[in-house]
Amino acid sequence: MAVPPPTNEAARLAALARYRVLDTPPEEAFDRIARLATQVLNVACAAVNFVAAERTFTKSCQGLELAGASLPAGAIPCSWAVLTSEPLLIEDLSTDPRFCDHPLVTGRHLRMYAGMPLLAPGGEVLGTLCVLDPRVRRLDAREQDILRSLAALLTDQLELRLKTSELAQARALQALVDLEQQALPLEDTAERVLALLHAQLPLAWSGLLQLTPEGLELRHDRAEVQGEAFWEGTRQSAWGKEIGPALIGPAPLFLDHRPAWADAFPPPQEAEPGGVAWLPLGDGHDGVHHALALVRLDRPGVWLPEERLLLEKAASCLSAALTQEARLEAGPSDSLTGLLARGALQQALGRADQQRAGAGLGYVLGVVKLGGLQQVRDSYGHVHANHLLREFARQLKAPGLTAYRLDGDEYALLHLWPALPEVAAQELATLVAGAAGALHRLGYPVEAALGVASVPEDAPEGAGALRAARRRRAARERERRNARQGR
User: Fold this and answer.
1) Given the DSSP bridges, would you call strands 402-405 and 340-341 parallel, antiparallel or unpaired?
2) Angle ∠(422,425,427) on CA atoms, nearest 5
3) What is the mean pLDDT of residues 333-343?
4) How many structural domains are present in the chain?
5) Are 237 and 263 in contact (CB under 8 A)?
6) How does pLDDT run across 227-266, given as a tens digit for each residue?
7) Name one Pfam family in it (predicted).
8) 227 and 128, same structural domain?
9) What phi and psi values does residue 448 have, to the nearest 5 degrees?
10) Last residue of some domain: 102, 133, 163?
């Protein structure tokens, strides 16, 4: 039997969305109240259900294995209980034509149902605290009062969750404001921004991307366990080469749960995105367009207004770092380390490409990421972090090579016209390993990841070689991270 919609359905669903409780994992606070209901009322099972537009989500269930389940509307009595702010009391489900054929009745032989509405402060019914029992019975007035009090405790818990979330949101926004004012290098800013977003939002993967002629390229990312393989699957798919670039426009784009968009954009792998956000960041120092991308995997829902606000502030923070990068790298050298800066590398690659066109000479480019810089900065302060950067730069200087500082913890090594590219690549690896070893001997807990690409073997020109070297460096970082985590 179809369930008629509540008269205030739009307001009810809006109130339910505010609490961000649908499709969330079990929480002891809810389980405790459900257990208490079974014990005090002497019933077989109790459940905390939230009723959405077309389904009912079971947040907690004691006595039945339904916690985390999402059932179609009308599948359980709670879908009917939200039609009124009064309790729904059914002495014998087997005699009610709405539920007599339900598996809980025919299979589990449950008979009694009592559902107490969970009321938001505005009076909207969010769901129910319900109890069921195989005995035909009716809760007396005292038992109904107990169930009503327990339902009120659940509503209080929802309010506490909401206020805690709002406080965390405010703190996260302030942290982004503070981070933007620190004017850190782009890589440092990206690392902190993505860490903050993952702590605040249910994200599987996020990344700072740049749009190139070949598609999307990754500058920095962060992945939870379920999102580890997302970027590698995406980069080689239509998402990375066609769809993603097309989505990067002048305004943020928030794609909600699968029914809204997955038919148009098939996922690149088995894990289906539960939501994707793309936020444009503007152009970097070399005119390359950048974007912040975020993914939720297998987690349905919409991007809430407060989530969008946080993401837009994060994009603003990254845009400021991009602007600073462009301004700083217009100069020829890095003031901290004395190495040549990114702008000088671009000029050197341009000259090398011209000489290659004329004389056919190739070159080898290495990109190095110094891991652990933030740990040193947090543990020992900026003085030690700056000493670390200067010492690493000093160790990278070698005959026949030119070293560049590209960003906070990113360096490049250029070997022009080597006789054998593979020998030059090994020389770069030996140099970087020695530089990291020198830092270890100084007591700095850091590691260096190197990616190497050759022109013309790996790319036809310098920009492509830089992207290829970064991809290989990122792959090396993932290998180390997976090795540490035993995967």
Assistant:
1) parallel
2) 115
3) 84
4) 3
5) no
6) 767 666 666 555 555 555 555 567 888 877 544 444 444 4
7) GGDEF
8) no
9) -120, 130
10) 163
Domain carrying residue 455: 340-484
Q: What pLDDT digit, counting tens, does each position of 343-387 carry?
A: 889 888 988 898 888 777 889 999 999 999 888 988 888 888 889
223 sits in which H/E element: strand 215-223
> What beta strand segments (E) does 302-446 contain?
340-341, 363-371, 402-405, 410-416
User: Phi, psi (5° rounding) for residue 369?
Assistant: -115, 125
> Is 288 a domain residue?
yes
Residue 206, both tokens:
């996020």
The predicted pLDDT at position 260 comes to: 44
- Long-range (24+ apart) CB contacts under 8 A made by 224-233 are 224/198, 226/271, 226/297, 226/298, 227/203, 227/295, 227/297, 228/478, 228/482, 228/487, 229/269, 229/271, 230/204, 230/205, 230/268, 230/269, 230/271, 230/295, 230/297, 231/205, 231/207, 233/268, 233/269
Q: Are 32 and 84 in a shared domain?
A: yes
Strands, E, within 224-350: which ranges? 253-255, 273-283, 289-297, 340-341
Say yes or no: 250 and 357 in one domain. no
pLDDT value at residue 425: 94
Q: Are strands 402-405 and 273-283 parallel, antiparallel or unpaired?
A: unpaired
Q: Are residues 323 and 349 in the same domain?
A: no
Question: How wide is the angle at C-alpha 285 spanned by C-alphas 284 and 288, nearest 5°?
Answer: 45
Tens of pLDDT, residue by residue over 130-147, are 999 999 999 999 999 999
What is the phi/psi pair of residue 347, to 5°?
A: -65, -40
Orientation angle between helical segments 141-182 and 9-19, nearest 10 degrees: 60
Beta bridge mates, 117:
128
One-character DSSP codes across 245-266: HHH--SS-EEE-SGGGTTTTS-
How much is the pLDDT for 238? 54
